[in-house]
Amino acid sequence: MESFQRNLQKLAELAVTTGVNIQPNQELEISSNISNAELVRLITKEAYKRGAKNVHINWADEESSLIKYLNAPEEVFDEFPEWNTLMFNELAKRGAAFLSIVSNNPDLLKDVDPKRVAASRKSSGEALKEWRKYMNTDKCRWSIIAAASPAWAKKVFPDLDEKEAVDKLWEEIFKCSRVTGENPTEDWNKHNNLIHEKVTFLNEMNFKTLKFKSKITDLEIGLVEGHIWLGGCSDDPNGIRFNANIPTEEVFGMPHKFKVNGTVHNTKPLVYAGNTIDNFSITFKDGKIVDFSAEKGYEVLKNLIETDEGSLYLGEVAFVPYDSPISNSNTVFYSTLFDENASCHLAIGSAYSTNIENGPEISEDDYDKFGINKSITHVDFMFGSEDMNIVGVKEDGSEIDIFINGNWA
Q1: Per-residue pLDDT for 1 more than 80?
Q2: Are 172 and 258 found together in one domain?
């Protein structure tokens, strides 16, 4: 118990410092399930110690959400509270930082009509477009961390009883989040530096095209001109550093909206909108999804792909070595925050404008001209494997190995 409390306190400190890097007189918004109250209180206290002006807590309750999905009138899911939109937009304009704590039950909405979930996702996506632009352009500092919950723990460790499963999941969260050492902040500085070495290499190479090949995937991705690879920590417009994801192992870039061809198969389950999608494949032609299949969660995947025009295209391509800490845990977490950091992945939907030169200044009306995808959604799915080979093709046609057998070449 003493060790748990010490690690929980270190996670709270890390979220405030390395995560959102709260500054004196700055506001902080925390979105969390009510089950994480202890961690939220620790984070709140730490934020005020660092000089936060005000901490706003946006509580959620999964069971209440499920009751709503099962019982509310159909038209409710086409609406999103205007006061909620105003709150997020106003906080972003005032320069607040945003912290999300994920502890979701991966199967929460498995018995809910997928159309209800899709409608809710679409209405919230439309309503929060302005706020998401602040996040996607790093104009506000933001971060996501994890907390164990009984339902999530039992999904990850079904053979353990509930208490053992929760304890085991916390152990993995602490380890993957790098808070078990004496100085987590310094550990994260070293980790960010290692990721930035890969970022520097990829940016110097300035590849035109990427070729992905494994036993089940054969995909070619063109990159936008002036693309910028990113990974680890980021900087806001004032040069203040933050880590958007804790944990993170990825280096990510921007695929050209109209230059993706071939077929990709997932290698880890995708949990989306309280449902699991697995054993699926997606085929692209000139950037657009032209075919897909799924043994599990077909309707959910269909609704995701049909969210809007941009959800038929990709917004992100990311490298994660097979020999990475989360991958080596041999654990499927059923959480994108963890599983995307165990495997190379792609994102259906919106691109990050920070992945292209002068991206935040480019008008959305000109996005297609540059090959930037725009959507109200952004959903990562994993396709990396131990036999994945990735080749980068330069402007002159020369080829350089990036990954061999799942790892950096």
Answers
A1: no
A2: no
The tens digit of pLDDT for each residue in 44-77 reads 999 999 999 999 999 999 999 999 999 999 999 9
Whole-angstrom Cα distance, residue 108 to residue 67? 11
**Is there a single domain that holds both residue 135 and residue 219?**
no
Residue 84 has, within 13 A of its CA and on its CB side, a CA count of 15
Question: Residue length, the chain?
Answer: 409
Amino acid identity for residue 331 in this structure:
T
DSSP of 172-217? HHHHHTT-SSS-HHHHHHHHHHHHHHHHHHHHHHT-SEEEEE-SS-
Residues 52, 122, single domain; the answer is yes
Amino acid type, 264: V
Q: Are residues 259 and 388 in the same domain?
A: yes
Residue 237 lies in a domain: no
State the number of CA atoms in the 13 A half-sphere of 80 facing the CB.
17
- Report d(CA 295, CA 231) in Å as an integer: 32
* Overall domain count for the chain: 2
- Asked if residue 388 and residue 268 are part of one domain, the reply reads yes
39 with 169, same domain: the answer is yes
284, 310, 281: which is closest to 293 by C-alpha? 281
- Domain boundaries, position 67: 2-176
Task: Give the pLDDT of residue 325.
Answer: 87
CATH code assigned at 41: 3.40.1830.10
Report how far residue 284's alpha carbon sits from residue 58's, in angstroms, rounded to the nearest whole number: 38
For residue 395, give the 3-state DSSP assignment: coil
Q: Are 236 and 138 in contact (CB under 8 A)?
A: yes
Tokens of 86: 């105003």
pLDDT digit string, tens, across residues 74-115? 999 999 999 999 999 999 999 999 999 999 999 999 999 999
